[in-house]
């Protein structure tokens, strides 16, 4: 009477809970596309073997039996034992992933002798343009203990989260929402049938500004160098069309799991393949900094037609500061100073302008601070001032340091992305900010042409058009005048002329 009537509801609930297991289903991770819809990161099929501790009984014995069927090294077995001791007994633990079809077959045939062991079919991240896109996309990897936030998704076997690059920056949006599966099990925990299944909601698709073909081309061109970086930007809307850093790495290796040797090789490589040099490499910009100094001089009222004599050096106190051209350039004005990259000309005008005014102009062109790209790890570089040196080094600013800074050396440090932003602002006259993403949206909401998404409207820089004209004309002469320092790098096709600035 007590069991059937008084406590019937309670025991019915307990019986149902024991009979039906509710399992979470990992959602497909959202794809990452280039500006034309080319998939840069997608998902492919992945077979993995998982183990549930409360069904396995003697975990060590089950692992030993399993190791006779598929390859399991000592590291794998220790990791599984560690994870099953930390996680709740009903939470599946991944033993091995990326099984071949032969390995899957061997496990399935011997399933009766492997309690708690099952084969699951999931998805794994795939990067078809691995090397060329690695520093933009980053990678996904298994969830570490420090990543656990209480979200049950993170405890699912084989679940991956973004650990670097765009994958990390937009991880929550790319994850999606978990589905559910109601499984009927017998008294021993063996699955009888699936009662109900609701698939998860796929993660949002992310559209980048990058042109996948151009990115690959740039990466291939840089591969001839030991260590290099390049940024290609649209000067009007700030779209980053290519952002490459070499040497690179294979993000698929992180997804599958690196060996200790592979990891040590990466972190001990003197060329730092894991560093995205385009946003985190800090370099003296050299003579590419001279346009900023020239703009600061124009703002200070210096006549661009006023000539300075370059004998090949200047003397300040007891120190001599040389021009790169040993015998000098003779008389040069601002246009010729940029065209010939005359150091003496910039030594002269920098003394008149002062380091603080030069720094203020540099900041307006995106130097000395992070420009705000959609990637973690961007560095801000450094543009020195009198106050900065006193606060950070405890010494007063010296006149010779202004001369050194005027040619982009000394304390001046920039990233390749900052230099690209600087030139985009010079070319457009607007406060261009680089962007790497065009939109995050559900797959069904994607427009047919992802390149038609709205572009930002940047405010004009408060700099007279006449000042910009002086700088642009000089940069044109750098490449297209026979005596320009970049004349050999000019583009001769009509309508495609290059304007730029060399720097050492």
Describe the structure.
The chain has 504 residues and is α+β, with helices and mostly antiparallel strands. It has 21 helices and 17 strands. The protein has helices at residues 2-6, 8-19, 53-56, 59-67, 74-86, 101-109, 130-137, 165-169, 171-175, 212-222, 251-256, 260-267, 277-280, 290-299, 334-339, 343-353, 355-364, 386-392, 399-406, 416-428, 465-480; strands at 20-25, 32-33, 39-51, 93-96, 117-126, 139-142, 160-164, 179-185, 191-198, 205-208, 228-233, 240-246, 308-310, 313-316, 319-322, 330-332, 437-441. Strand 14 (313-316) and strand 15 (319-322) form a beta hairpin. The mean pLDDT is 90.
In quaternary terms, these chains amount to single chain
What fraction, in percent, of the residue positions are helical? Answer: 25-40%
Reported for the largest beta sheet, the result is: 6 strands, mixed
Please, how many helices?
A: 21
Strand content: 15-25%
Number of strands: 17
> What Rg, in angstroms, do the CA atoms define?
30 Å
């Amino acid at each position: 009477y007590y069991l059937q009537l008084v406590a019937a509801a309670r025991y019915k609930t307990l019986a149902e809970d024991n009979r039906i297991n509710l399992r979470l289903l990992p959602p497909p991770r959202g794809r990452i596309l280039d500006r034309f819809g080319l998939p840069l990161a997608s998902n492919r099929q992945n077979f993995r073997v998982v183990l549930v501790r409360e069904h396995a009984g003697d975990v060590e014995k089950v692992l030993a039996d399993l190791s006779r069927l598929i390859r399991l090294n000592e590291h794998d077995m220790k990791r599984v034992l560690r994870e099953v001791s930390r996680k709740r007994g009903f939470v599946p633990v991944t033993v091995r992933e990326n099984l071949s079809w032969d390995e899957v077959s061997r496990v399935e045939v011997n399933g009766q002798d492997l309690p708690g062991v099952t084969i699951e079919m999931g998805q794994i991240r795939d990067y078809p343009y691995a090397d060329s896109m690695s520093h933009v996309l980053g990678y996904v990897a298994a969830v570490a203990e420090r990543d656990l936030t209480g979200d049950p998704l993170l405890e699912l076997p084989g679940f991956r989260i973004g650990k670097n690059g765009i994958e990390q920056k937009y991880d929550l949006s790319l994850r999606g929402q978990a589905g559910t599966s109601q499984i009927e099990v017998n008294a021993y925990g063996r699955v009888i049938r699936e009662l109900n299944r609701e698939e998860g909601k796929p993660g949002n698709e992310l559209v980048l500004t990058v042109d996948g073909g151009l990115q690959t081309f740039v990466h291939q061109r840089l591969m001839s160098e030991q260590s290099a970086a390049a940024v290609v930007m649209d000067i009007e809307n700030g779209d980053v069309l290519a952002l490459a850093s070499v040497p690179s790495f294979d993000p698929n290796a992180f997804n599958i799991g690196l060996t200790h040797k592979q990891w040590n090789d990466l972190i001990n490589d003197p060329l730092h393949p894991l560093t995205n040099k385009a946003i985190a490499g800090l370099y003296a910009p050299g003579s590419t900094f001279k346009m900023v100094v020239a703009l600061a001089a124009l703002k200070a009222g210096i006549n661009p037609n006023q000539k300075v004599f370059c004998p090949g050096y200047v003397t300040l106190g007891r120190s001599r500061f040389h021009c790169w051209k040993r015998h000098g350039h003779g008389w040069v004005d601002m246009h010729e100073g940029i065209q010939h990259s005359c150091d003496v000309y910039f030594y002269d005008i920098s003394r008149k302008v002062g380091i603080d005014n030069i720094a203020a102009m540099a900041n307006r062109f995106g130097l000395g601070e992070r420009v705000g790209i959609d990637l973690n790890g961007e560095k801000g570089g450094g543009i020195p001032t009198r106050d900065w040196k006193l606060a950070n080094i405890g010494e007063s600013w010296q006149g010779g340091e202004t001369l050194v800074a005027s040619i982009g050396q000394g304390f001046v440090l920039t990233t390749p992305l900052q230099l690209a932003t600087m030139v985009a602002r010079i070319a457009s006259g607007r406060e261009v900010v680089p962007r790497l993403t065009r939109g995050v949206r559900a797959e069904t909401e994607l427009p047919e042409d992802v390149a038609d998404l709205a572009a930002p409207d940047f405010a004009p820089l408060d700099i007279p058009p006449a000042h910009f004209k002086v700088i642009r004309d000089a940069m044109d002469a750098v490449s297209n005048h026979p005596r320009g320092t970049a004349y050999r790098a000019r583009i001769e096709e009509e309508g495609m002329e290059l304007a730029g600035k060399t720097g050492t």
